[in-house]
Design a protein that fits this description.
five-stranded antiparallel beta sheet; mainly beta
Length: 368
């Protein structure tokens, strides 16, 4: 949503807490935990952060999954296997996010069943041998953080469209150096928000709100959420590398994300409109550093990290429809249909991809 690279990032959470006794029902009706599945990420020692945008909440779950697994992933018919596991219709299941547990190498999926008010979330573990199992939350220790300043839970008109901003209260999250970072919307005047919270959850603070220049629209915007992000070091300082719909790429210094601050990010690329970013990872190969971005319409984008580091702000003028500006990228043409992406190890990525011949596969691919 998201990314489990060494650096991970979260919006400052307004929190309330609850213990593992949320549900003692061994039949595992996960509806008590998630109204909807959202972005997920891992911290150390098998600690899983799982979000529920509909409830504007995050669970920190001690999975106990810390034993290194062996094997490589290639799970065909993933959608059908999820249907069998969850006992529902294939067209009612949506894979929301993928995260690799760095402690074990196993994969976890955030899944939503149904839609609208009738949707429910679930977490599914996929071991390297291809076995799927439901994560039994009733048997795992956890704490819950509920966001303050969450957006309203009703349809409102934003520009020419109607949408429910609560569904975007959490759009991505990541954990780095003891802090959980979360992106999404709030009820603030600048509703695009980044939050930062120390774990264990013991504090709450007002979120930082974000303004960016959107080249395809030719104006500054404050109401579009970060879709996916990556904490990344630039010139010795940690930044959030954030991607937005339609598709600005923006650098935001973490040092600017003070509680209640209004921050203007630096737009370093316009990657073409009519597009939705999905996931980003960073890696090294042959002594060089790269970034990969999965998206809906332009294939897997590969960036040289040096170009990101050296990039300056694009001119504050409109970028013509469909055209691009700023940092350049290479398209990885063989990686078709990728809908979710995470780093598996220092040589491979793990992807959920829709196959041209039909069906969905979870598989590991050598880093390009």
């Amino acid at each position: 949503m998201k990314s489990t690279i060494t650096f991970l990032f979260l919006l400052s959470l307004s929190l309330s807490f609850s213990s593992n006794s949320l549900l003692a029902n061994p039949t595992l009706k996960q509806d008590a935990y998630f109204k909807a599945g959202g972005p997920i990420c891992f911290g150390p020692k098998g600690l899983l952060f799982a979000s529920d945008p509909q409830s504007a909440a995050v669970l920190a779950i001690k999975t106990g999954d810390t034993k290194k697994a062996k094997g490589t992933f290639k799970v065909d018919g993933l959608q059908k296997k999820l249907v069998g596991l969850l006992g529902t219709k294939s067209d009612s299941i949506r894979i929301v996010d993928l995260a690799v547990n760095p402690s074990s190498g196993n994969a976890y999926l955030s899944v939503t069943r149904g839609s609208g008010k009738n949707s429910h979330g679930a977490l599914v573990k996929v071991s390297t041998d291809g076995k799927l199992s439901l994560v039994n939350l009733s048997k795992l220790k956890q704490t819950r953080a509920t966001l303050n300043f969450a957006p309203v839970d009703k349809e409102i008109r934003i520009g020419r469209r109607k949408k429910n901003p609560r569904k975007e209260s959490i759009t991505d999250l990541a954990f780095v150096n003891g802090r959980l970072f979360v992106a999404g919307l709030s009820n603030e005047e600048f509703s695009s928000t980044l939050r930062s919270l120390p774990y264990p959850f013991d504090k709450q603070s007002k979120p930082s709100t974000i303004q960016i220049y959107h080249g395809a629209h030719g104006k500054f915007e404050t109401h579009s959420p970060v879709r996916t992000f990556l904490p990344y070091e630039i010139d010795g300082k940690m930044n959030i590398l954030a991607a937005y719909t339609c598709t600005p790429l923006v650098k935001i210094p973490i040092s600017d994300l003070k509680p209640g601050s209004k921050v203007t990010g630096t737009t370093i690329a316009e990657l073409g409109n009519w597009n939705h970013p999905l996931d980003m990872i960073a890696y090294k190969k042959n002594g060089e550093s790269y970034l990969l971005m999965a998206n809906t319409n332009r294939g897997i984008m590969k960036f040289k990290a040096a170009d990101i580091t050296e990039a300056k702000s694009i001119p504050e003028e409109r970028v013509k429809r469909g055209e691009k500006a700023g940092v350049k990228y290479e398209t990885i043409k063989k990686w078709t249909g990728v809908e979710q992406l995470d780093l598996l190890d220092n040589k491979n990525a793990l992807v959920v991809r829709k196959l041209e011949e039909g069906g969905i596969r979870l598989e590991s691919l050598p880093l390009p």
